[in-house]
Amino acid sequence: MSLSASQNRAGLTLIAPAAILGLVFLIAPLASIFVLAFTDYQLGDRALSFIGLGNFRALADDPVFWRSLSNTLIYSAVVVPGSVLLGLVSALLIDSGTSLRSFYRTAFFLPVMASLLAMAIVWEFMLHPSFGIVNAVMKTLGFAPRNWLKDGSTALYVLAVIGIWQSFGFNMVLFMAGLSAIPRDLYDAAEMDGTPHAWARFKLITWPLLAPVTVFVAITSVIRSFQVFDTVQALTQGGPNKATEVLLYTIYAEGFEFFRSGRAAAITVVFIMLVVGVSLLRFLSLKKTGSNA
C-alpha cells in the first residue's frame, strides 16, 4: 500500500512541471480571454465592467466582422483544395520517380520552413505593378498589367495563391508518409490481374488506402488556413477597403490599433470555436477510421 502511494507521489512529481506549464501558458490565457470577452475593457484602462453578451451582440451587427469572417472562409475554400491537391500530386510524382527524389522533397518543403514574412517581401516585389515579374510575364503574353494587391477583386485570391504555395509542401510530406505505408505487393497483384495503367491502380488501390490520410490532411489544412495573418499584415494590412481582412487580422486591429480588448477577446472566442469545431471533426474522423480498421 505504501509502495502504491509512493508511486503515485512519484508520478505526480513527474507530471507536475508539465501541468504547471500548461496551466500558466495555456489554461490561464484562455480563461482570461473568455473573461475579457464579457467586459468592456480597453487596453490601458485601470477598470472594466462586465457587459454580458454586449460584445457578441455588437459583432452580430458589425459588417467588418462579417466581412473578415467571409474573407477567412473564402480564403480557406481556395487554399484547402489547392494545397491538398497540389500536395497529393507532388507526392505521387516524387513517389513514382527514381531520381532526384531528395532534391524535390527538399525544394517543395522549403516554403514551409522559410519565414513567411521574408517570403512575403519577395512576393511583394514579384507582384509590383511597375517592375514585378508577374506583370512582366503578363505583358509578354499580351495581357494588361494589374495592381494585384491593391485591386479588391484579386487581392484575397492572390493571398490564397501564396497560402497554397506556402502549405502544399507540408501536405506533400503527409501524403508521402501515407504512400510509404501502402504495400507494394498490391500494385504487383493489380498488374498481374490486368490493371497495368497507373490511373487504374490509383483508383483501385492508392486512393482508397489514402482516404484516412486525405481526411487528416484536409482538416489540418482548414485549421492552418484559418490562422492566416502574416501575409495579410505584410502585404495588404487588410485592404483595399477590407477586401483581405481576415479574423486574426481583425483581432489584431481591435486589440492593438483600436485598443478594444474586450471586443478583440470576443472575436477570439469566435475564432477558437471555429478551430475547436474543425478539430472535433478531425478527432471524429480519426476515431471512425480507427474503428473501421
From TrEMBL:
It is found in: Cell membrane. One of its GO terms (cellular component) is plasma membrane. It is a multi-pass membrane protein. The keyword DNA damage does not apply. The keyword GTP-binding does not apply. Signal peptide: none annotated. The chain crosses the membrane at residues 12-38, 73-94, 106-126, 155-183, 204-223, 264-284. Residues 69-282 form the ABC transmembrane type-1 domain. Keywords: Cell membrane, Membrane, Sugar transport, Transmembrane, Transmembrane helix, Transport. It comes from the Bacteria. Its main location: membrane. GO terms for biological process: transmembrane transport. InterPro entries: ABC_transporter_permease, MetI-like, MetI-like_sf. Belongs to the binding-protein-dependent transport system permease family. This is Multiple sugar transport system permease protein. The lineage of its organism: Bacteria, Pseudomonadati, Pseudomonadota, Alphaproteobacteria, Hyphomicrobiales.
